[in-house]
């Protein structure tokens, strides 16, 4: 190498080092190993990655792609894999992975200089143009973000744009982890202002924090976006199953398919739940959202009140209902309170309904040991929410709330019935809270029975008949009848033995075409599992008897007993000498290798936590529900025993 070349190379290196790049911010830095950053498991997140490829190669696509998602949805993992993929194609211009674990990687002022540094290492023409600019102004790296972008990226790129490859990408991951929130807003504004004028595309990831979300919303036409928490759940769960199989593949003994499925069930759509404990993460989010140094007292109270309502609501809930139940007089205050909670709460863009992103967050919040000062007591706050629901009902419920004119007119014949319902029944009344007192639960069971009877009766075609027919013909033992008949005027009164026996009347009946030996209702009441004399089992809809799953073949004799697991995810069937566990969603066989003296089996049932299985016949046996090994066996009886009910500590036999 000539002396001139050595001198020139040293000059280039000196000028580039003056930028003070954050070298640990690249996706594959040594820091990535220290903090266990990794790519996607092979075969997962294919849809997301293919969508990114489409964006890269589409010449008409926007210059900015924003991938956002709640905590734990896999943003950084996807971004890392994306970098690997495009680097192999020589399309990765630069990467900056922000992280709170490194001071330089959370410094917003280091992003542009680091991108310029990496781009100079990628492209010799760009390197030459940049070094000429640095020779004239070596202190650019210490300027503000806008000045940095103008001089370090825009100007040199415009000089050499014809020498730059098409479809070059810069990846900036986890913008929300930077310290300077105002700086983050500046970077986003800067990109929207200048990205279209440079031969680069920018892929950004972040949680939907208020300042980022609002900036992205104001530039909706200038970027593409994907909300990871809105991806179809079945696709994400399939990816998590692949991830868990790879991670647990080296265990001894290896995890069974049933155990993998149980972990997938708990993970939901959060990869992070499968990968790590998230208590620290949730604590950090709440500390940031409830930072009393930056908030007024009433703002903190609003955030806590809104969080409480969403946590204890049993379903997604709109802003107006939250305001009513939280006793906040202005829905705008609710919207303001939701902003700092976007990383743990999800508000759908279509309907505006608010819910927790994942079951792990309520689990965290309801555990005093885990959430500490952020803890919500389940009993106390459930009762508080129930009281507020009753106050709303007391103030807004009334007889014939939709002002229907006649019981002789069916609902279909009422003009604009849907609009009338929406106008007459506020969302706060449509919402229901889960009651906690035991006597209220009994009442709800009766109410459910009453409404089911009305729904399957021709009287349901005309809503006024809920009073004049369904209530009048209800069993006198029904709590709904006892509570409301004295509040209703002009009801006919029915007497006689037939009315007393009305509780035993079936709601409906179906012909199955086969002899059914046993059946079980799913925990959610939506499915019926039947075991048949022809050795098959099937899962039917509890509403119309349509077949969900089956018929399933595995037994060689008539099926004597069937049962659902407590979570509804597995089913068990038993016949003489055989016990089989199946997936309740797709009918795949999970385990048929139960070991021991099976013999004649009259009944079978899961334990409340789903880990054990109990079978009864001429002896009672307890099994491990995952691997089929025997746990306990009672002495043989001289007569068959049927399992009537069971829990971990007590079995009732008959």
TrEMBL record:
Keywords: Repeat, WD repeat. Pfam families: NPHP3_N, WD40. PANTHER family: AMELOGENIN, FUNGAL STAND N-TERMINAL GOODBYE DOMAIN-CONTAINING PROTEIN-RELATED. This is Vegetative incompatibility protein HET-E-1. It comes from Rhizoctonia solani 123E. InterPro entries: NPHP3-like_N, P-loop_NTPase, WD40/YVTN_repeat-like_dom_sf, WD40_repeat_dom_sf, WD40_rpt. The keyword Acetylation does not apply. WD repeats lie at residues 552-592. Residues 53-207 form the Nephrocystin 3-like N-terminal domain.
